[in-house]
């Protein structure tokens, strides 16, 4: 039994030390363990999602159907039609839907693994704050995914509206490309909404201060809009603004939280110096 146990010992994370200090080899072992657990959670969730493939497919196609109805009113000559081409296309379609659904469903698992990886570098009191921000990360990610899905019909109708309306046109939309666009948009919005959690986490471990966040605020906001324009696959201004504006607001909220945390640290340090 001991021999069999030692065979899989390389999969185990290193034992935590009282000060949270680890060697480079221990950091790599910890990272490997966290990635394996996150990957297993994703695989299990994706496999479970594949069972409801038909229902998920209909859910993913709903934005297209809504956009088509919107376009009928503004451009009656436009006839958007979905097509699927290629022998492997149906199978790749199932994989795409299952993987993204698995990513969303397993978000508590991989977000926890992210927190657990940085937790050893935090003090006991800071770990409680980090756990609270982990609780905020899951709904923020899911909120971002939901908003990406919600604004999709408007984004589709904006892009398809550029089709010439003077004569009847059949606009053929490859179903794989369309669903790839849908899934990418949802994931990008979900990850974008995690920005405040990342910023506050970096502040907790001392990587960035609130003063630095305020100093570079203008540049970060500008970069946020650039990111919104580059990261949204549909490239329409509506989707870009729907991502960039909430990210800007979340950045400002994170900055306020970091200011509160820095003041708390400064007061604790001043008390420690007086006591010494």
Description:
The protein is mainly α and 276 residues long. It has 11 helices and 2 strands, in the order αααβαααβααααα. Helix 5 packs across helix 6 (124-160) and helix 6 packs antiparallel against helix 7 (175-192). The longest helix has 39 residues, at 237-275. The chain is flat, with a radius of gyration of 23 Å. The mean pLDDT is 78.
Give the helix/strand layout.
Elements: H1 2-7, H2 24-51, H3 53-74, E1 78-83, H4 89-105, H5 107-118, H6 124-160, E2 169-174, H7 175-192, H8 195-204, H9 210-215, H10 217-231, H11 237-275
Task: Explain briefly what this protein structure is.
The protein has 276 residues and is mainly alpha-helical. It has 11 helices and 2 strands, in the order H-H-H-E-H-H-H-E-H-H-H-H-H. The chain is 76% helix and 4% strand.
In total, how many beta strands?
A: 2
User: Based on CA inertia axes, which overall geometry fits?
Assistant: flat
Helix content: over 70%
Strand order of the largest sheet: 1-2
Report the C-alpha radius of gyration, rounded: 23 Å
Helix/strand order: HHHEHHHEHHHHH
Query: How much of the residues is beta strand, in percent?
Result: under 5%
Report the average pLDDT across residues.
78
Supply the helix-strand structural class: mainly alpha
The biggest sheet amounts to: 2 strands, parallel
First CA to last CA: what distance?
52 Å
Q: Count of helical segments?
A: 11
Low-confidence regions? none
């Amino acid at each position: 039994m001991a021999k069999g146990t030692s065979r899989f010992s390389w999969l185990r994370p290193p034992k935590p030390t009282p000060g949270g200090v680890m060697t480079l080899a221990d950091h790599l072992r910890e990272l490997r363990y966290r990635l394996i657990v996150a990957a297993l959670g994703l695989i299990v969730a994706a496999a479970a999602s594949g069972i409801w493939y038909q229902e998920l497919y209909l859910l993913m196609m709903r934005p297209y159907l809504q956009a088509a109805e919107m376009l009928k009113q503004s451009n009656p000559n436009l006839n958007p039609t979905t097509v699927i081409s290629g022998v492997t296309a149906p199978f790749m379609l199932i994989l795409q839907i299952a993987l993204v659904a698995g990513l969303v469903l397993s978000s508590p698992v991989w977000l926890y693994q992210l927190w657990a990886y940085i937790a050893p570098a935090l003090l006991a009191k800071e770990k409680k704050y980090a756990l609270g921000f982990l609780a905020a990360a899951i709904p923020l990610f899911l909120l971002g995914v939901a908003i990406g899905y919600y604004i999709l019909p408007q984004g589709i109708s904006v892009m398809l509206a550029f089709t010439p309306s003077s004569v009847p046109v059949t606009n053929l939309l490859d179903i794989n490309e369309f669903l790839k666009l849908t899934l990418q948009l949802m994931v990008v919005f979900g990850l974008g909404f995690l920005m405040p959690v990342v910023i506050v986490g970096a502040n907790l471990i001392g990587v960035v201060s609130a003063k630095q966040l305020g100093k570079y605020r203008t540049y970060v906001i500008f970069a946020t809009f650039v990111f919104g324009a580059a990261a949204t696959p549909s490239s329409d201004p509506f989707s870009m603004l729907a991502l960039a504006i909430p990210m800007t607001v979340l950045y400002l909220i994170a900055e306020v939280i970091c200011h509160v945390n820095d003041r708390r640290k400064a007061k604790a340090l001043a008390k420690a110096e007086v006591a010494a």
